[in-house]
Amino acid sequence: MASVPSPTADSTAIGPLQLVEYPHPALLRRAKPVSRIDDALAAAVEQMFDIMYDARGVGLAANQVALPYRLFIVNCEGERGHGEEHVFINPVLSRPRGTAVQEEGCLSLPGVRMDVRRPERIVIDAWSLDGQPIHLDVDGLLARVIQHEFDHLEGRLFTDRLPEAAALEVRRALESFREVHAGKQSRGELPAHDALVAELDRLEAARCG
Fold it and tell me: Of 145, 105, 108, which is closest to residue 124 (Cα–Cα)?
């Protein structure tokens, strides 16, 4: 039986994390800025890297592991010990330049891949886990991954950016995800919608102003 933490538990606790799939409510909710960076959040980031590498991903947003925080991680190599690990807290994107089209997928929509048009170059300002400011002017794959993960924080999926014809192609896949999600809830493998939202509210209250 799936469960969420007891109301009597530590109100700031973050338990074991796992990847969530569409249409989990965390994926459809705009994340809130983090006002408190503590040891539990740092440990959660370590869990996020483990989850991302296990899934062979190159980026992961907090709401993909049911954390309602404006936070995402990136490593364009997708392998521990290779490439550069980035942690972006409360990111702001600016100065979009150029246009590029490239195929994208999403760990929360396994099996769905489509071409997505995005700016080729952007600037990101954010904070690191140790409270240091980050300012990067990026292009190529890093710029694309950052924009993909930033969309997650806005409650958007890459499928929301598809032109009408392509969106029609993925409609059936999204409906299948909804059916699987509802089935897991009906069998008690996932908490009910209201319980999932209540847990997001608890986590948000713990670290968001």
Answer: 145
* Domain boundaries, given as residue ranges, for the chain: 25-207
- Which long-range contacts (C-beta less than 8 Å, at least 24 apart) are formed by 72-76? 72/146, 72/149, 72/150, 72/152, 72/153, 73/45, 73/48, 73/49, 73/149, 74/142, 74/145, 74/146, 74/149, 75/49, 76/141, 76/142, 76/145
Q: Is the pTM of this model over 0.85?
A: yes
Residue 154 CB-density burial (10 A; 0-12 exposed, 13-18 middle, 19+ buried): middle
Would you place residue 11 in the very low, low, confident or very high pLDDT band (cuts 50, 70, 90)? confident
The rounded distance, in Å, linking the Cα atoms of 114 and 131 is 36
pLDDT (average), residues 77-87: 96
25-207: CATH topology is: Peptide Deformylase (3.90.45)
Amino acid, res. 33: P
Quick check: is 149 catalytic?
Answer: yes
> Of the listed 21, 46, 77, 149, which one is catalytic?
149
